[in-house]
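To: structure desk
From: M.T.
Subject: fold request, one chain
Message: Could you run this one when you get a chance? Sequence is below, nothing fancy, just the single chain.
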Amino acid sequence: YKDSLPPVPRIFNISHILRIPSILPEVATIKKAFMDSLLQLIRDGADFVELAKKHSEDIYTGVNGGDLGWLEPGELVAEFDSTVAALDSGEVSGIVKTQIGFHIIQLLGRDAERFHARHILAFLRLSEEDHKRAVDDLKSYRELALQGEDFSELALEYSNDPEVQEHKGNLGEWDLERLPEILSEFKPYIENLNEGEISEPFSTKFGYHIVKVNKLTENRSRTLETDYDYINEIVNNRKKTEYYQKWLADKKNDMYIEIKMTFSDTTKTIKKH
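Reply: Done. Structure tokens follow.
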């Protein structure tokens, strides 16, 4: 069995710090203040449609006075749906913040399954500067770690990973050839790192990361001393497979097989024991 055992692959124990680009608070404050002023105009009697045509940043609906048409719950973001659900026909909402931006919403009507609404939108768009700031933040955290600060403590303080309080940035041990989909984008940035090294910032669909290789176990041949449980499992599985194959062969030999073929209204029976 020894010669046929697969070697132990290189195993990387890794930690990361995630930064998700965000808009500067002062930018959001300016956008919110502008929407507050539009809302006050509407409450003072200004025409919603004309304000939407002039000021909405939704280029698809703004030209139509913000009209979104008839929609079913779930077609838009959850905050939009919950706001609409609380409005009466003709009523205008306050300022609603979603992942898209700030909205002022007016319900125009509803039936049993759908609603008709219009809105004015102020986008909260990420700028190149927002992305650059996330990368620069990671570069500074990397430098602090290289100077001796604890990587896990830096992760606790600065990472945007929603589970960082539980794992302190540690993502566990991985064979890079068998990374789960959620980590698959990490491979090219860490496969050439040595133990203790930290990657430069890189981007994934989740945001920007730096990754530290906490421990690197090089690939090696398996031995009875170091891999007894693994080898024992392999041997037991092979024994089970061999037993099953022998059992199946014995059953086939004991089977009664009847095949009927009709030729010119004559039935011939071939029997095998």
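Reply (cont.): The mean pLDDT is 85. Let me know if you need anything else for the meeting.
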